[in-house]
Amino acid sequence: MSIGSTIKRLRHERGMTQEVLSEYLGVSTNAVSQWECDKTAPDISHIPMLARIFEVSADVLLEIDHSRSKKQAEIAAFVADYEHLHAKGKTEERLMLCREMHKKYPNDETVAYYLMGVLQQGYAKESFEEITALGERLLSAQAEEHRYGAIKGLCYTYLAIGQRERALEYAKMMPVCDDLLLHTLQGEALVTHCQAYFFQLCDKMYLYMNYLLGESAGNYTPKERHAMRQTLCEVYSLIFPDGDYGVREDKLGRTCFFMALDSAREENFPRALDELEEMVCHFEKASGRAPLRHTSPLVNRMTSDWATLPRHSEESLGTTYLRYLSNNAALFAPLETDARMIAIKQKLAAM
Q: Which of 194, 219, 294, 299 is the most buried (most CB within 10 A)?
């Protein structure tokens, strides 16, 4: 809405004629008419007087509040659409959405943050220059989430092109701080905060375990790798004794698969079959995707909602791990005709 339309609206709302308004302002009636027809605009010196006459702020008169709230609503809708597409693994659609919003709001840090994120996840190498430009800009963002997200994004992007030393520069920029909330919160807020720690602990252990076992310098044997992943599963069981794993079912299923690989390397095929069947069981529970309120005492204030979990591919877990089994066909060759292995593949294909 233009300032002329706003003046007209406010004048009508107050039952005021153009003649009366012109007298208040010391201008001609024709001048007011020209404003309201958007042929001219009032001089900036008239704004304070108009604001007093209509008993509104200059921001309202100039539609600044309206423009700001309209943009905020658009950004909020954009974020909701982005998260919805992310939960469905629709990377190309997310990129198109971000491109469209970035064209409209090129200086908005929220839009830049999400654009950087989708580029980093699916187009890191070919979009290196754009990602780093967005990241460097976001290092001075107002929102802490955007600043730290930019640091992580820059770190991973330089890693993707093999510049480990440059990635380390950004990795060292991430703050390491004590959890002061642990010492300051009380009551229900403290209970929820502590439970959130245990809730996230398994995820961190899963991530660290995968990096540890994926590093050749560790020199772990198949037997050691299997034992270490078994320990991880036991930690999950300690924190979720009710078996209420929720969104972590998929991580447990993935862990079972890698345990089965090491069992096969040790030629312990009966154990490998057990672990593959357990993998399928976890994946089947994961495919339900129903929101879950946890019941285990350490996490009974927490909830799991599959709708909020990002996916980087539209491919189902069943399809992905059926492909992984095919890629490791030589390792599982002695089980190729086993009825249990056939059933495992059939269940994966059906997911």
A: 299
